[in-house]
Amino acid sequence: MAAEPWQRAETAGPLRAHVLTKPDVAVALIKKAKRPIIVAGHNVTGEPLKSAEPIDYVIQISRAGNIPVVATANVGKTFLERGYEPAALMGAMDIANRIKDESWMGLDGKGSYDVLLILGLPYYMEWLILSGLKHFAKLTTLSLGRYYQPHATWSFPNVSSEVWEGNLKVIVKGLGGGV
Amino acid sequence: MATGHSMVVYLSKKALNIKFDELATDVGTLKNVELSIGRIFDASWTEPIGPTPFPTVSQLRSWDHKLLNRYKPLYLPDCDLCCLCTMGKCDLTGDKRGACGLDMAGQQSRIVLIAACIGASTHTAHSRHLLEHLIEKFGSDHPIDIGGTNIEIEAPVTRLVCGIKPKVLGDLEDVLDYVESQIVSLVAATHTGQEGSALDFESKVFHAGMLDQVAMEVADIVQISSYGFPKADPEASLVETGLGVIDKSKPVILVIGHNVPPAVDIVDYINDKMLFNKIEVGGICCTAIDASRYNPYAKIVGPISWQVRFIRSGVPDVIVVDEQCIRTDTLIEAQRVHTPLIAASDKVCLGLPDRTNDPADEIVADLVSGKVPGVLILDSTRVGEVAVRTAMEIAPKRNKYKVLPEAEEIIKQSKSCRNCNECTRACPQTLPIPDAVRLAQEGDLSGLAGLYEACIGCIRCESACPVNLPLHSFIVKASQERIDEEKFNVRAGRGAIQDVEIRRVGGPIVLGEIPGVVAFVGCANYPNGGIEVAEMAKEFASRRFIVATSGCAAMSIGMYRDEEGKTLYETYPGSFDAGGIVNVGSCVANSHIAGAALKIASIFAKRSLRGNYEEIADYVLNRVGAVGVAWGAYSQKAASIASGFWRLGVPVIVGPHGSKYRRMLLGRKDKEEDWYVYDARTGEKVYVGPVPEHLFYAAETKEEAMVMIAKLAMRANDTSKGRAIKLTHYIDLHRRLYGAMPDDVHLFVRTRADIPITIKDEVVKILEEKGWKETVIPDPTLLQRMVRRRVT
Question: What is the C-alpha separation between B439 and B207, in angstroms, rounded?
């Protein structure tokens, strides 16, 4: 299935993300991962959905899949206020720079990560970070945001907030969490 | 036949300087012989000349590589391709190489170099034009004077890079000859089939930035010296600022750009004809700042993003564009409101007829009658006369004709919206324009008004709209009440920092007791409006940092009022001291911020600046806790300005849009081996922690930038008292904005005396958990040659 970048001028090039037409595919990819990590930007608090905020789904995905979360910018404060302690409070550029480095032993010192789940950064910033990782890192990247990110390995297409929330719920459930 | 020893030879393209301590010839022995051919080195200047006067592209390469070894590039390609030659397009995805052999890292660094060269060229061409114009007007012997007796080091960047001490305008021609020749070499390196190493491209980026600082310094010191701008005056006057300060009942001339002679000649003509009470002059972007430095009668309308909103308001009766950061569709926008346009630079001709040599009467008649929409006049004196006369004559006829729709029209037109989302998809901020339009359909314009602060005025939304809704005009009209109240002030650009100010703060900065110098500079491509810059400036001024500023950022800092109704310039002093907010001036005045760091090395530490780049940059990197913040950086000039600071070891933070520069320079605090320096006292290598941690960093939010500013202000040389002060700010901001203690405190504590006393228990606990070990505070340097006593 073809998908379009959300910001019109962001045309990537020959290698574009596979489209996650069904959230179950994301579930399968995450389950298959040996060392996944979530990077959550400050916009996970910016868009209330029908039942919860995106940050709440990030927490649920993290808990259900036992996946560490790196909270970028100042969003860590909101995670902490919700009683969830991210694995790290780190700038988006900093974490991207580490993930790029195959020799990095991860936040826990146990090895590099093989799958990155990312959402909540400004669209263009996420675009560029995913591009950097596409070209200079080996891991698989999944964009869990509302808008198609062609530099990811896998991305949802542009979807309504209702569909997006539905997708996030399926992922939580698929990983064994309760919604 | 002659033999010599202790010979020093300085070579550059146009000069040869030979110095012998002793020269033995067939006819006798000569001592202390110095011979200069071509470029003249001032023999009366006793400061010893360093190793790199007029450095070539590769002479500072080893310093660059020291920096790049610590601050490695993180490349963020905008797309997968290179399309710069006809062998392409080439797909550089992953580890592929293009037809020329270049890989993706090389291509990204090449693009960064191209951007830095564009920026440096732009400042240099600006500088060259100003220099030639002012030599023609004032003579090449016109003295350089930027601060009277308050300033002895008149051109610190030029002294550092070129090794000369310019005294008159004519001395600067050699300086620009050098800069221009170097930029040509750098651009040549970007041609297909030249440089192939990403790190060497990056070294050239630094070179472009260094040249850019020289060019900026030349531009600003010649205009200060010739036009009588404020001369390092901390109490420069306050200038009226904002859309609301323009008296709409009068004819209005709008000047846009960066190169001030046309604006100066407009003000002079008004003065000569005693029209001060009868006409308004307002400016956008740096021309506004420099016109107000010339005469505070000229008002500042606003930053770069105010162009379309002000033109469409119909208020300007004549628009004069000089160069840089001008919307290239200004003529189209001007025609819509029947405002004639005068282009005043050969860099921006806009397809207009060259009327430079025509009689003023004829040009004015053609502009007033509408026979031509605009003219090109490459003579600033002529521009001054034509602009003023045209404005006076056309104003009653135009009657402030505007193209902003009335509220009823907005409501009616908004009903044709198809909800296609193309506007928000075109918006760089992804503003919720469709939601605002839906509200407008119901008669509620508050949604549109709510977009005003974050809108950067790019009008891509209008270009994208399939039913041609004038969406930017909607936003502006819905915000009319707010716009009418845009009445603020900005302290006029003061220029350089006085030597006496440096003497006062040099010690406290180098020892760390003034927690840092933070410079808010650059353009207005802000993620959430200019208010964030003002908020950050207020935060750090109140924390007793020295806050410097320039350009559009300086305007944004002045465009908000506190609870008492005061702007920050009314609340905080303009002196270069703890708690001051120091507007140095326009973009080219950024050189004074670099100059202040250099003067600390020169005046406080008695280091020789002259042709001594590497040693001084090493000093700044390790001792001067300066941080640049270009929160709305958009341009190639911003890229070259940042590059100049990088080579000096000054970190730069940009806003999220700055990630589009496609390359960060990031340290790795988790790699201990990257953070060793030589202790110049002993020659031993000492771990100093990640200070400063990064050289170029895009922050996602204002809060992240604030924490990062406090962190990047730390330096290896901080005394324990200074480090404790800096740590207090870092920890305090981190806790307030991130809700937790930072996890890297232990990396910044060298001895127990570094621990802030008020949070000692908490920090000690962290140190124990982390297995922290005490170390020493060295006399830090990255240069082995600076070690005074080697360890055997």
Answer: 52
Host H or E run for residue B138: helix B104-138
* Residue B341, φ and ψ in degrees, nearest 5: -120, 135
Residue B3's pLDDT band (cuts 50, 70, 90): very low
Distance CA B428, CA B463 (A): 13
Q: Which of B702, B704, B709 is the best residue to mutate to test the A interface, defined by the most A CB atoms within 10 Å of its own CB?
A: B704
**Domain covering A18-73+95-174 assigned CATH 3.30.1330.60 in the classification:** no
- The count of C-alpha atoms lying within 13 angstroms of the C-alpha of B117, restricted to the half-sphere facing its C-beta, is 23
Residue B246: partners with Cβ closer than 8 Å, 6 or more residues away: B252, B280, B282, B299, B301, B315
Instruction: Strand A88-89: give its sheet, edge to edge.
Output: A18-19, A154-155, A140-143, A115-119, A36-40, A69-71, A88-89
Q: How many Å is the Cα radius of gyration of chain A?
A: 15
DSSP conformational letter for B632: B
Q: How many CB pairs under 8 A join A and B?
A: 126
3-state secondary structure of B471: helix
Q: CA triplet B504, B649, B702: central angle to 5 degrees? A: 85
Q: How far apart are CA B713 and CA B546, in angstroms?
A: 11
Phi/psi for A140 (5° steps) reads -90, 135
Distance CA B682, CA B405 (A): 73
This prediction's pTM: 0.95
- Paired with B24 in beta bridges are B3, B29
Whole-angstrom Cα distance, residue B201 to residue B209? 12
How would CATH label the architecture of B240-398?
Answer: 3-Layer(aba) Sandwich (3.40)
Say if CB B623 and CB B726 are below 8 A apart: no
Mean pLDDT for all residues in chain B:
95
Distance CA B13, CA B49 (A): 18
Please list the alpha-helical segments (H only) found in A33-160: 54-65, 76-81, 92-100, 123-136
The candidate with the shortest Cα–Cα distance to B57, out of B109, B12, B107, is B12
Cβ distance B300 to B282 under 8 Å?
yes
Taking CB atoms and an 8 Å limit, are A91 and B74 in contact across chains?
no
Q: Which residues are bridge partners to B4 per DSSP?
A: B23
Q: What residue segments make up the domains of chain B, in order of their start?
A: 2-38, 240-398, 407-469
In this structure, what are the phi and psi dihedrals at residue B277, rounded to the nearest 5 degrees? -90, 0
Contact B697, A93 (CB under 8 A): yes
Q: How confident is the model at residue B22 (pLDDT cuts 50, 70, 90)?
A: low
Which one of B93, B659, B704 has the shortest CB-CB distance to A73? B704
Task: Calculate mean pLDDT across residues B336-342.
Answer: 98
Q: What is the 3-state secondary structure (H, E, C) of B649-692?
A: CCCEEECHHHHHHCEEEECCCCCHHHHEEEECCCCCEEECCCCC
| pLDDT beneath 50, residues of chain A | none
ipTM of the complex: 0.98
Q: Which residues of A touch B (CB under 8 A)?
A: 6-9, 11-15, 41-42, 72-74, 76-77, 80-81, 88-89, 91-94, 96-98, 100, 104, 121-125, 128-129, 131-132, 134-136
- Residue B252: predicted pLDDT: 98
Instruction: Please give the backbone phi and psi of residue B788, each rounded to the nearest 5 degrees, phi first.
Output: -80, -35
DSSP A68-79: -EEEPTTTHHHH
pLDDT at B242 over 90: yes
Alpha-carbon distance of B6 to A97, in angstroms, equals 49
Contact between chains at B700 and A92 (C-beta distance less than 8 A): yes
What SS3 class is residue B13? coil
C-alpha R_g of chain B: 27
| Ranges of each domain in chain A | 18-73+95-174
CA distance B112 to chain A (A): 15
